[in-house]
Specification:
By secondary structure, the protein is α/β, with parallel strands linked by helices. The chain has 15 helices and 27 strands. The strands form 6 sheets. Strands 2-3-1-4-5-6 form a 6-stranded mixed beta sheet, with helices on both faces. Strand 4 (113-119), helix 6 (126-137) and strand 5 form a beta-alpha-beta unit.
């Protein structure tokens, strides 16, 4: 194979449109007119049509599945190839029928540009509008719209102009896609695909092939900021091998030995010590598209779903973000209940925070203010995750800006992240990230402290109203852990108030009281302690704020609620009448289950 062939540029193009609007015919004709068919393929299909008494169609070149030919519709996303003088194309013919919408999305998700087909006779139809949403939802900005079957409209310019005006206005109204070009074509006759015909001399724009060749290739993924979603952490203990391997697939960027990297959302910052592979030679760098493992300059405790990046190009972190979403499940997407969002390797509970608008693409004047998202609806939403997640806007990174929503065991919908939305912890999260990035580490690592102490650092917060007995339980737990040779410390909120907070006014903002309390907790956790806290002195400190400041350190919330009326999110709710020994046993059981401590003897 020559160097010129090896170095030729490739581009992925998806063909979408309403059923029977001629997508497969467009693709088949492109294959034939560019000489991209296997030798003898065209003659073989023509001969088969003669044998079976069918009228030859260029679509038959693609519809290879027997059930597709029987029904006359494309069910799966067919992939084929054609080439021009400029580049090679991988073209995806996606299903147009509404029942195969999920297949269409999976096909289009791999595309860099799109051709949207509209039938000149039928005009703009339901899926013409829906596919406009989807292309925008998938972040595909390079789109050409072809108005096919112009021969059935007697090649009339006025007819073409009317369709272009209607569809441009529709796309402008939803703000998702701005087409590069509208082209009148007759795919069956090859008109304006690769050659022009006198009947449409009024059209002076580019042919479809010229338009495709004018699309710009996306920058190589190696030139983009590093994005390595963590899939798993492996620990090898055989034959004296004590490596801890952090494994995943590099979605963008280049990773090198010695790189200073950060894990998000936990803000753990370390250096890459080695790049590992199975039965491969040692290497000092690796790029996008490769699955790999790395060892780090120190052992850290992180789990699947963390996103590895360089500190100077870290992803966004938060619990709320604005999305464009299409819903595929028969059961509607409703407010007030949890689903699961899968975002790169993260999978966390999520729910609708706010519905901005919901559009049924089958209706031009559909209700924008529905209180749920129905099947095949396209929605502009703000989603909220239960815990912070790392993500990018779709305009910055496709791999970390796309997601799916899972309901039970089924993929129910999917979409793209279009904007970040501040939540109540945003200021603290920014502060914690800046603090962690600038943290000056001592000579003793957190892993060494864990090995020496025999347990992880963590926080146990006793919350509840004044006088319910939080302090007695906290003291009892501290004593039990200390007697079991665990490094524990009871941090009463009042001690922080009368010491560190003595300079604050009596009516100081609770947010600042909580912030200082959380920073003290973080220092003690860094020292490897299990911190047991009571928090009345700072007004029932917000656990979410404290958790934001301590990052991914494990924590438990014990709610002491004699009235049984509390709705505080917690790990254990008690009445306050239980014995200290009973509560110590129950909390220790939780600590063991969370992997913070081994069982007490």
């Amino acid at each position: 194979m020559s160097d010129s062939v090896v170095s030729r540029e490739q581009m992925n193009i998806v063909i979408v449109g309403h059923v029977d609007h001629g997508k497969s015919t467009v693709v088949g004709r492109l294959l034939a007119d560019t000489g991209s068919l296997p030798q003898g393929k065209l003659d073989a299909v023509r001969a088969e049509c003669v044998r079976t008494g069918k009228v030859f169609e260029y679509a038959f070149l693609l519809d290879a599945l027997s059930d597709e030919q029987d029904q006359g519709i494309t069910i799966d996303t067919a992939r084929c190839f054609f080439k021009t003088e400029r580049r090679d194309y991988i073209i995806i013919d996606a299903p147009g029928h509404i029942e195969f919408l999920k297949n269409m999305i999976s096909g289009a998700a791999r595309a860099e540009a799109a051709v949207l087909v509209i039938d000149a006779k039928e005009g703009v139809r339901e899926n013409s509008r829906r596919h406009g949403y989807i292309l925008g939802m998938l972040g595909i900005k390079q789109v050409v719209v072809v108005v096919n079957k112009m021969d059935l409209a007697k090649y009339g310019q006025a007819h073409f102009d009317a369709i272009e005006k209607e569809y441009r206005e529709f796309l402008a109204g939803i703000g998702t896609v701005v087409p590069k070009q509208f082209i009148p074509i007759a795919a069956l006759h090859g008109a304006n695909l690769t050659t022009r015909i006198p009947e449409m001399a009024w059209y002076t724009g580019p042919t479809l092939l010229e338009c495709l060749d004018g699309f710009r290739k996306a920058p190589p993924k190696n030139d983009q900021p590093l994005r390595l979603p963590l899939q798993a952490v492996y620990k090898f203990t055989g034959d004296g091998d004590d490596r801890r391997i952090f494994a995943g697939r590099i979605e963008a960027g280049v990773l090198k030995v010695g790189d200073d990297v950060v894990f998000s959302p936990s803000n753990k910052r370390v250096k890459v010590r080695t790049i590992e592979g199975f039965n491969t030679e040692a290497r000092t760098e690796i790029g996008a598209g490769w699955s790999t493992g790395v060892t780090l300059s120190e052992e850290i405790y992180v789990t699947r779903g963390e996103l590895i990046s360089h500190a100077e190009h870290a992803p966004m972190v938060g619990t709320r973000f604005r999305v464009n979403l299409i819903w595929l499940s028969k059961k509607p997407f409703v407010t007030g209940r949890d689903y699961k969002i899968k975002l790169h390797t993260q999978a966390v509970p999520v729910r609708i925070h706010e519905i901005k608008k919901v559009i049924d693409a089958s209706e031009l004047d559909s209700d924008l203010h529905k209180d749920h998202v129905g099947r095949h609806d396209v929605a502009d939403l703000i989603l909220e995750t239960r815990i912070p997640v790392a993500y990018d806007l779709i305009s910055e990174s496709a791999a970390t800006g796309r997601f799916v929503i899972v309901d039970g065991y089924d993929v129910a919908g999917g979409g793209i992240i279009t904007g970040s939305v501040a939540d109540e912890q945003e200021g603290l999260r920014v502060e914690a990230r800046l603090r962690d990035f600038a943290w000056v580490h001592g000579s003793v690592t957190s892993a060494e402290r864990v090995n020496a102490n025999g347990h992880r650092a963590g926080l146990v917060m006793f919350v509840g109203k004044d006088g319910v007995g939080k302090r007695k339980y906290a003291r009892a737990l501290e004593r039990a852990l200390f007697d079991a040779r665990k490094q524990s410390y009871m941090l009463d909120g009042n001690n922080v108030l009368v010491g560190l907070d003595h300079d604050l006014a009596v009516d100081a903002a609770q947010a600042e009281l909580v912030r200082r309390f959380g920073e003290v907790v973080n220092l003690l956790l860094t020292a490897g302690l299990i911190v047991i806290s009571t928090t009345n002195a700072i007004g029932l400190a917000d656990h979410g704020s404290v958790q934001t400041l301590i990052g991914d350190a494990p924590s438990l919330v014990i709610d002491v609620d004699p009235a049984g009326a509390s709705t505080t999110a917690c790990d254990l709710r008690i009445r306050g009448s239980e014995s200290e020994a009973e509560i110590v046993t129950r909390v220790v059981d939780l600590l063991v289950k969370r992997g913070m401590i081994p069982g007490l003897v």
